[in-house]
Amino acid sequence: MVLNLKGLGKIEIGLLDYLLIFVPVAVYLELTHGSGTYIFAASAISIIPLAAIMGKATEHLTEKLGPGLGGFLNATFGNAAELIIAIIAIKEGMFSVVKASITGSIIGNILLVLGLSFLAGGLKQKSLKFNATAANLNSTMLILSTSGLVVPAVIHSLLKNQSITNAAIDGLNNTISLAIAIVLFTTYVFSLVFSLKSHKHLYGAADEEAEGHKGAEGWSTGKSLSVLLAATVGISFMSEFLVKSLESATKSLGMNEVFVGVIVVALVGNAAEHSTAIFMALKNKMDVSVSIAIGSSSQVAMFLAPIMVFLSYFIGPAPMDLSFTALETLSIVFSVLLVNFISADGQTHWMEGVQLLALYVILGIAYFFIY
Amino acid sequence: MVLNLKGLGKIEIGLLDYLLIFVPVAVYLELTHGSGTYIFAASAISIIPLAAIMGKATEHLTEKLGPGLGGFLNATFGNAAELIIAIIAIKEGMFSVVKASITGSIIGNILLVLGLSFLAGGLKQKSLKFNATAANLNSTMLILSTSGLVVPAVIHSLLKNQSITNAAIDGLNNTISLAIAIVLFTTYVFSLVFSLKSHKHLYGAADEEAEGHKGAEGWSTGKSLSVLLAATVGISFMSEFLVKSLESATKSLGMNEVFVGVIVVALVGNAAEHSTAIFMALKNKMDVSVSIAIGSSSQVAMFLAPIMVFLSYFIGPAPMDLSFTALETLSIVFSVLLVNFISADGQTHWMEGVQLLALYVILGIAYFFIY
Amino acid sequence: MVLNLKGLGKIEIGLLDYLLIFVPVAVYLELTHGSGTYIFAASAISIIPLAAIMGKATEHLTEKLGPGLGGFLNATFGNAAELIIAIIAIKEGMFSVVKASITGSIIGNILLVLGLSFLAGGLKQKSLKFNATAANLNSTMLILSTSGLVVPAVIHSLLKNQSITNAAIDGLNNTISLAIAIVLFTTYVFSLVFSLKSHKHLYGAADEEAEGHKGAEGWSTGKSLSVLLAATVGISFMSEFLVKSLESATKSLGMNEVFVGVIVVALVGNAAEHSTAIFMALKNKMDVSVSIAIGSSSQVAMFLAPIMVFLSYFIGPAPMDLSFTALETLSIVFSVLLVNFISADGQTHWMEGVQLLALYVILGIAYFFIY
């Protein structure tokens, strides 16, 4: 992302660009059948600059196409890296990794991104203010959408206590998850109508700010599309390497798949949004930071998660359900409650950042030991 | 209810009145030993206009008797349909249906009624405002009263893990539920003192509005009492038919009792309040809608639920406890948290309505498959 | 504590001073091998005036030493009674009593102290106002710190379902609890920097008020230290008697250890703060009451609980973990959510006090029957 930060922006971009060197490194390691851990590390790192480039291209495209189609594009390609990783993992039937990355995206955005944003902004300014109305809009949307995600987990735990066969439980789980995915996705379509048509004035201020950092030089639609295509191909390959090396890497590092999904995969897949949110916080544009962090979490719950369920019917070895683990469910509930309380008053400071990060570390410890 | 809606109100009343035809239909089907499903449907529908008539009579009576006795009457007869259905079900020992209807009343008022009210009001006006102070008063009351309801479920699940006999567990459950019912009921009595005596000015605005729709022509106390008596008798019979046909109806429709209790019985028993709340929303009197929806839920938790426990000692085959299922407990917790977040800022729009309804549909799906 | 309440203050101190008679009573009973129940009662009562004296000495010391060192002293000795009781219990390996007293301190402060404060203040004045910003600061801190306490319980329940040995489960529990204790304690250190250095202006108003009740006559540092030492020695002995007689007392009274820990030990250990909060409410200084009640709860979660885990490694027969029971976990979650909703609007009345007390009674009933 091009940031007008008097040199700092350019250094940042430079650093991200250098990371592209890991693309050929990952390819070389894969072709020479190198160690799974190194392939995992190289492909994970290489997705970060690719996701940033894809984000930049999408933003230029959105500028040209206007808010209607642009909003849809943004929602789709803004999460493209996550979606591509998920598609590869669904193909391989690694559903627990897919669900862990959904959880990780939700709590990572709320706890890690918002925490770092509050800390970064709070170290520069004593008191940080943001638009409480817009933040409440987003965080109420979030609490409603995540409650949809929590229901299948509850149902799953109740089903296990009933005297029916495992096959019957799996069937019911899938039926319920599909039904809930349809409800969540329909709600998401309504929310697009709400934010892009009927109530777009409520989102106006944040959009305007966000547009400010896109840089003056617009790209042509052709250039944007070519870059988008190239980045998509790059991410696809790197994700394939990432997912395939995940098992051997986690084993040799002594970590479990859920931890890797919640912490590592979610971090990599959301790297572009993360850096934007934190840079906006450093520029004291807390509205944009809060809107990116909370908005991305809602989008994962109402758009990405249902899409992944639908896709599993076409490309997966079996349908994927939405029954998260107890720890995942609780992580989501806690994080969502927290962000609602914190965003209610429209002001924050560095200590709230420390506390959000503390909870992220605590949950990270939990995922490290539990699977 | 007579609504001064320039014709619309009279049409509404007319439609409800036509539904009275289902009273003789239900009686006929019962006498001719008709299909349980049809008896269930006919008696369920016939309760709706009867509850509306009872509501009208209670309101006229409240006007005559003043806020003190009137408030008590309103609380009792405003929920009379629910109470009568519950009494019949308690007599039959159908405790899971009784508890399901308590859950259904709480979440139905918060999710369905408030959701429809926000949607109906929001489609007419871009932004809906209501008195945040009054709404917070009600919703804090709700969170406190429902936490009382949640404790017995937790205790029940803990007791199951202890090495004591089932009879001992049942005994403890009943003791704890009775103790909690007494605490909740005592709190309810204090809340009547609070809202009718010490702090009635806080409820003033909403009351004034609510009185506005009662119509100019007051009924005499005699007329009100006769109508009240007639409606009570009608509802009693219809409820008896409803409860007795419930088992065969649910079987032939492939539904479970808890789903019917949470969704169908709760809908029927609360039909009168539901229609009032939505009509008030259409007239942009959101204060009244919010107060009816949240207030009714509190009343169910603090007044109806304890009364049902007390009654079970006198008319039931055994004492009823308050240990709800895990899904019921979670539904209540989620719905109550939601309404607190939504009502905090005193403004809403159609999208919040869509989201509340989405959660209602998601929970409905869960209850349909789980029992 | 010396309260300028026109006579009332002196009566209060007088009453507390009379309770010191229970110190020799407890010693006499212990030496003559008296009944455990009487020793328990006498030592419990005797801790109340000792804790009040210790609180007074700490406050005088804080005045002399300034906010930096003073703040740390206040945090340590303000909870000294609780800490001493916990140390004795940890030595004896009575971990469930220690954890129960942590739970009891958190919910006791939020439900009992805040409930009594709202009730006491609300009976004198119709509407009570307090600084919503300061209250939100404290209650957000509380929600974040208690979520750290809840995670180990979730992990513990998940571990029980895994096919590993009990010894391995205990080991993991201890590792995770220690890691989380370190995170919580680090966060606490940051919060001291926040409240005593970087953002002390936010806490200014409440401090000023709180200082108002310290009385005009300052003590010399020497006198404060001597009194502090004497009270510490007194509490240490009384706590030893309390903890050692706890088992036989609970048995003969038919109560379980967790109930005694949550209700009795927590009440005794916090008696000093409790009385201050309620007296401040009577003087309509709700800011101080709310700050004491919510602040003490945060301190227990972020400071006392981690310290107890650390101490168990040095003085306990085994390391103590932080996995609370399901009922404890839920009590904390509910109480913390409640206080967040109630403190959000910065105003209250007697009915909210009644409701908080009602929840305290309901939870008390639960603890009485469940263990």
From TrEMBL, chains A, B, C:
Domain Sodium/calcium exchanger membrane region stretches: 37-196, 224-363
Entry keyword annotation includes Mitochondrion: no
Membrane-traversing stretches: 12-31, 37-57, 69-90, 102-123, 135-155, 175-194, 258-282, 294-316, 322-342, 354-370
Membrane topology summary: Multi-pass membrane protein
Matching InterPro entries: CaH_exchang, CAX-like, NaCa_Exmemb, NCX_ion-bd_dom_sf
Subcellular localization, as worded in the UniProt entry: Endomembrane system
Superkingdom of origin organism: Bacteria
UniProt entry keywords in alphabetical sequence: Antiport, Calcium, Calcium transport, Ion transport, Membrane, Transmembrane, Transmembrane helix, Transport
Keyword Calcium: yes
Pfam families: Na_Ca_ex
Similarity comment: family membership: Belongs to the Ca(2+):cation antiporter (CaCA) (TC 2.A.19) family.
Record's function text: Ca(+)/H(+) antiporter that extrudes calcium in exchange for external protons.
Designated name of the protein: Ca(2+)/H(+) antiporter
Originating species: Candidatus Magnetominusculus xianensis
Upper classification of the organism: Bacteria, Pseudomonadati, Nitrospirota, Nitrospiria, Nitrospirales
